[in-house]
Amino acid sequence: MNFEFKAFLFENLEAAGSIAGYVSISIIGFALFTLYAKKKHKNFESQLGPKWAQPIVGAFLGAIPGCGATIVVASLYKQKKITFGGLLATFISTLGEGSFVLLGASAEADVVGNVKAYAIVTIFGLISGIVFGLISDTIGFRTKNKRSVKVLNKESQKKSRSFSLNIQFFEKIRFYIILIITIFLAPASIMALWGGSIESIAEIVYWFSIIFTICCIVFYLLEKFLFSNHDCIGDYNNIPSTISHATLDVSMVVTYVFIGLFVANFVIDVVVGSETFDSWMMSSTNLVIFIAAIIGVLPGCGGMISVAVAFIFIPNFPISALIAAGIATSGDGLFPLLADNKEDGLIVSIASFFIALFVGFSSLLLGF
User: What would the DSSP string read from start to end of 82-116?
Assistant: First the structure.
């Protein structure tokens, strides 16, 4: 029994590491591209256009892979530079870091099918974001943007400074380990996208994939429970700080990918059985859509990542459930919004959940 569990554990660690190789390339690459675009268009925040166009702009910003756009739009909403409809549209259309899971599928999954699913979910999110964002602004919902200012006392500021040295040391370790392993796994990850592999280093890649997953889990847990330094509102204006923040996102995504894989495979292979589970999935699509929306609406990207992993690895997982989770999720942008305006953050989450159910069940009727 111990040997079987060990084999099962290593299998999921390796599978998560295989996905992580390309996911990390995507996250770091996109972070650098965002930095370049930000420096190229310094006046972007003041160029969102007229009020009627802001839900459209917001929806397209949300469709950009990752959570960066939701964080930016939450900041713009705080500064009253975008309407509530624009904010809602962005949060509806985003897939958060879950987009990298779908785009980073390797030979272990249907690469073409997952990219197609990503495109379908993105299109549904775009249309839904634009429509419901425009409806919100048309009826004048939440036209008054009230802010709640959170003030840090001197004691908390002093306590924060006392940890700065430890945090910097921790960030450097995370920076170099994730970057080095990402570079090493890059060739194998890119080959895997086309169903190939590098046989001469297959054994080394296997162990590095396992080590990568374990490192990411350790880094994420330390960050979450010890340092709590995930600064969603931080401004990253140079390459080192941008990559450092991207490695934090990598550790979070890989951790949730592993959790999603482990739980899904355990339920399917051990608890239920693959044939029984396959039959249940086919007969309970409505329930799956509802559960996916609930998981997706959880703050942060973890819920969406879990649903994306389930879609990739669970047979007959309905794409309508993936659509519902994608619309329900708000990404990391929800955290700065809640910190500044809890009421609007709660309204966005509730609205996104019910819109997700409506669109999810509608997409099911359309055959998705």
Answer: S-HHHHHHHHHH--BTHHHHHHT--TTS-HHHHHH
| 188-218 confidence digits (pLDDT tens) | 766 665 555 677 777 888 888 899 999 999 9
Nearest alpha carbon to residue 86 among 138, 33, 37, 41 = 138
Nearest to 250 by CA among 345, 145, 176: 176
| pTM (2 d.p.) | 0.70
Rounded Cα distance, 251 and 257, in Å: 10
Report the alpha-carbon angle 277-278-280, nearest 5: 60
Distances (CA, A) of 76 to 45, 72, 233, 268: 7, 6, 11, 44
Per DSSP, 47 falls in state -
Q: How far is the C-alpha of 103 from the C-alpha of 109, rounded, in Å?
A: 11
* 3-class state of residue 349 by DSSP: helix
Q: Which helix (H) or strand (E) holds 339?
A: helix 334-340
Ordered by start, the domain boundaries in the chain are 2-144+158-365
